[in-house]
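Quick note —
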Amino acid sequence: MAVVSILTAPLSTQARRCEEEPPKTVLALYRESTEIHIAKLDREVETGIIESGDDYQVVGIQRQFSISSTLKGETRKFIAFDDQEYRYTGQQPEPVEEGPEEHMVGTKVGDTVMLFVKRDEENKDKLVLSHYRDAEKKLEAEQMSAYEKMIGSLNSLFANGEPKDEAVVGWLMDVARDPQTRWEGVFELLTSIESGEYRQQRLDYLKERKASAEGLEEWEAEELKELTANPQDSSSKLARTLTAAQKDELLALALEIKAEPAGEDNEFPQMAEGDRVLIELVSRWGDTRLVAKMAEQLREGMEPYQASQMMEKIVRIIDDADARKIAERFSGVFYMDADEAITAERAGEMELTAEESGIFPNAENKNPAAVKNFGQLKNELIGKFVSRVEVVLTSAAK
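Predicted structure written out below.
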């Protein structure tokens, strides 16, 4: 049987895209793919130098897969795609010690992956990856099994053509219930909400522009016309289809989330990405029942950036001025190294209060030595924030 070649996007295109594009969900990939396969990377073969310069080479690589099962589309035994590898050929810097192999990112020879492929737009005889980044999924065995089951359910969902929004939301709920596939369901719903929010914000902005002295550019007028006629696109309609019972179920799932305790490999408790997105999704509904859960997670410990994001979610729900002020102070210091001492100079630069910095100038010592580090300050701010949130919740319950 002939090997099918898959051509990836040029390096320049991938570089421009970088990581700015949101990740593709399985639902989006399924819609765009004519075939989905489970395959093992058998070998990588160099096909020649595509480009070279004084200190670099771009080498062609053919990555050859053997297919163990086909989940959608035509059944095949083998498939291959052409890739490009950039190699620096100048003076090498000092070698960097690599971590354990299990922490290395990317597909290696011998790995089993799920491949999403489609027909090339310019040459229908060729197959290409459905997405430059997300169409090759390397999954652990348990998750691979869950994803295979998910593709099977999508085959049933799309058996009679494009399903109704209610059916899609029902499928997303099924996916969200399984921790192995939760991200796929809740990220799709969160994206739907954000799409609706963006369209509404854009519509309001264009209406204001139209009423101003400046007026609208021709292309803006066309956009306003389209948004006025269709305030909700196909994506934003999904979240609006959620029923009250489905929202309550998602809230219940969020309240059951448990972070992985801190240990040797992680300084702070770690939350699965699907759980993190679930909390972000449910927080959009402004239900105060979620606030106590988020405050508890803050108290147990959290990576500083995630803690700042969690504070923002809580403030958005409780709308408390004091809590908002503490959250804003934390957002101004969360990125600082925990062990860095807070000097008088640094405190002045960051406009920290004496209580925050631990530095209390006096007549005898106008520039006292640091007595606190940023880790202590961040812990204090989190403690104050959680205490304030508890006061707000207690008052609301009376």
